[in-house]
Amino acid sequence: MKKALRYILFAVIAIVLVGTFVFLYKKSRPQEVRYTELTASVGSVDRTTVITGKIVPRNEVNIKPQINGIIDVLYKEAGQVVNKDEVIARLKVIPDMNSLSSAQSRVRLSEINLKQAQTNYEREKALFDRNMVSAEEMDKVTQALAQAKEERAGAQDALEVIRDGVSSANATSSSTLVRSTVTGLILNVPVKVGNSVIQANTMNDGTTVATVADMNDLIFDGNIDETEVGALYEGMPLKITIGALQDYTLDATLEYISPKATESNGSNLFEVKAAVKVLSDKMIRSGYSANAEIVLERVENVLTIPESALEFVGDDSYVYVKDGENKYSRRKITTGLSDGVNIQVNSGLNDGDVVRGPKIIEEESTSDAE
Fold it and tell me: Are residues 364 and 327 located together in one domain of the fold?
């Protein structure tokens, strides 16, 4: 029994030794180096750049109140469409006490004047009826009475505007009603019922009750580096991709290039704007992050090869042209425009020439590794 176990042990050791020898032998054998083969062909090469930016409406209008007050009712909310002159909110007026006191005083004074004018008119009218005063005198008191009535009405209207925000004579154009000045989509309603709001004046910009914009008139707003801005011109086509909408591309036309740069992280950037052609099948939201791809330079019907086939030595470019089975000869070429993948070949190659590409790296099989 012990003798049999000894034979088995020797056999296992022998198998391990033979396997190790075979593995090391395979490893020591030189492996054939193989390369990908690339073909020179006629095509086009574009040098493009990508501009980062966002999609925004061409015009955003901030709707502000005409008087100071408190939001009493909100008729609209963000996301709703509003027409021009449509009411967005109604205000409750909180009158200024000094102005209110002055308006009340003006009303009382106008009532005194009106009462006196009415008395003068009645006295003169009685004398005129008995032919004791001239028509000219009668005209004067009549005019004075009319003026007193107008002053009383004006003072009352002023009081109602200060106290209530609207006068009875102009109820249809109440300043307590905040109306949209344009037709569009409400992007934001930054106030709530009960918030105090103030009108715009020389001291402040006033409170924004709502922001309205026409979402059918959008632009791409981005920045481009100074090294590339020289290749731009108004009217250039762009392709807009929006991060929030995958596989969705919009056409745009460049319409503005800033004449002045702004510095950002040590780089000079120029603002660019492009008119976006909006499609009706997608909801585009204001502020979407977007990228604009723009072709800075293009050559067509030129000989091209993949740039991975090139070997650079100083300022010179070389390729290895296939002469036979796994045989390549080194050849100098001149190149032109590159798009980062393919490059234009000006001389040194012909259409259909096969050149050596990157080395093929073969992964070892699992059995060899074991």
Answer: yes
Residue 180: give its domain's CATH number: 2.40.50.100
Q: Are 186 and 97 in contact (CB under 8 A)?
A: no
State whether 241 and 290 are in the same domain: yes
Residue 311 has pLDDT above 90, yes or no: no
Residues 239 and 109 in one domain: no
Q: Is the pLDDT of residue 368 over 50?
A: no
User: Lowest-confidence range among 15-24, 214-223, 227-236, 297-306?
Assistant: 15-24
| Cβ atoms within 10 Å, residue 295 | 15
Number of separate domains in the chain? 4
Interacting residues of 331 by C-beta distance below 8 A, sequence separation 6+: 318, 319, 320, 321, 348, 349
Write the CB contacts of 174 (distance below 8 Å, at least 6 apart in sequence). 165, 166
Distance CA 274, CA 294 (A): 11
The reported pLDDT for the residue numbered 239 is 94
Residues 11-20, mean pLDDT to the nearest whole number: 70
At what angle are helices 97-129 and 135-164 packed, to 10 degrees?
160
The set of residues, in sequence order, having a beta carbon less than 8 Å from that of 245 and lying 6+ positions away, is 282, 288
Q: What is the pLDDT of residue 5?
A: 65
- How far is the C-alpha of 155 from the C-alpha of 109, rounded, in Å? 9
Please say which residue of 298, 329, 348 terminates a domain: 298
Distance separating alpha carbons of residues 359 and 196, to the nearest angstrom: 72
CATH code of the domain covering residue 278: 2.40.30.170
pLDDT surpasses 50 at 178: yes
Between these two residues, 45 and 34, which has the higher pLDDT value? 45
Determine the Cα–Cα distance for residues 46 and 342; give it in Å rounded to an integer.
Answer: 9
Half-sphere exposure of 161 toward its Cβ, with a 13 Å CA cutoff? 18
Do 212 and 230 form a contact (C-beta atoms < 8 A)?
Answer: no
Whole-model pTM? Answer: 0.65
Domain interval for residue 9: 1-28
